[in-house]
Amino acid sequence: MKKFLAGILLMMMMAVILAGCAAKGGADSKSIIMVWYPNESGEDLKGAREAIGKVVEKATGKKVEHKLTTDYVIAIEALATGNAHIAFLGAQGYIEAHKKNPKVLPLVVNSGKSGTLADAQYYSWLCVKRGEETQYKNGEAFSIDNIQGKRFSFVSSSSTSGFKVPAAGIVSYFSKKENWKNLKQEHLTEGGKDKFFSEVLFGGSHQGSAVNLLTGKADVAAFCDTCVANYVELAEGTANKPGAVYRVKKDAAEPFDKVPGAEFVVISSTPVLNAPFAANTEKVSEKDIKALLALLTSDEVAKNQEIFVPKGSSFKGLFVAGERFVEVKDEWFNPIRELSK
């Protein structure tokens, strides 16, 4: 508990320091600052960040400055306070930024294969190391009954698929049992003898949570499919289904470079609303917002192979060919808001 509180305090101090700095620029600024979560701040994704940045520069005529982070809270606070103008946030991060500042609004999310919002989703996984999956089965089906008492890794308390969705699922499942009928999401953030988990870790990123599992620091870990897609490959089973086995690629970049060939098994998979690009509309003008929406949702961007990367390409991107950006409104994220009630 002390370690968790100390971590929260440190993040709050960093966020306060960031928020305390004078907000840079305004709607008439000649530059746009984009802030990125730790998941997308790695050197291997520099090309992907720059590809998005070029689209923003073309739409607005303004130079883009990329700000990388090591914690979700820093990125959320930067967008809410105006120290950053545009961010690629998870749904939960967007909701937190919007709550802090209602002028933070979503622009677009990536679609599914339909090219619409109908299948604009990815997956939140609960995974275990290969060889340990049988203890998480009830008959032929996978079950989360035995995750209680284990060492568990989340991503960040502000992560949609790395905390909010899996925590809500765990509480919903176990609160039906007499021993855990009063279980709340906040009870999952600390481990201990009389706690739900024996130990709780936060990886800081989806990649970090996965590595916590693969290096033996955690027995079970929550992370999403899209954030590890550049580092792992499906070895057995059906993608995004319980029982699917994924293997770390031999040439995987950091932080997976220390565990090439390691395998994990998905024991639970839950669909999650796709993550938005969001803007602080106090800092980005209405004219620029309109230009951004027009270009981001265009066929030109949908065909950009450094943004929507074709299968088999060696380019490390964030989205896959066949998808496209579609405009989204604040209320689209209400199902994620409901998870906190």
TrEMBL record:
Gene name linked to the record: phnD
One BP term from GO: transmembrane transport
Annotated keywords: Signal
Family, per entry: Belongs to the phosphate/phosphite/phosphonate binding protein family.
Annotated Gene Ontology cellular component terms: ATP-binding cassette (ABC) transporter complex
Organism whose genome encodes this protein: Thermanaerosceptrum fracticalcis
Protein name: Phosphate/phosphite/phosphonate ABC transporter substrate-binding protein
Lineage: Bacteria, Bacillati, Bacillota, Clostridia, Eubacteriales
Pfam families the UniProt entry points to: Phosphonate-bd (PF12974)
Signal peptide, first to last residue: 1-19
PROSITE patterns per record: PROKAR_LIPOPROTEIN
InterPro entries: PhnD (IPR005770)
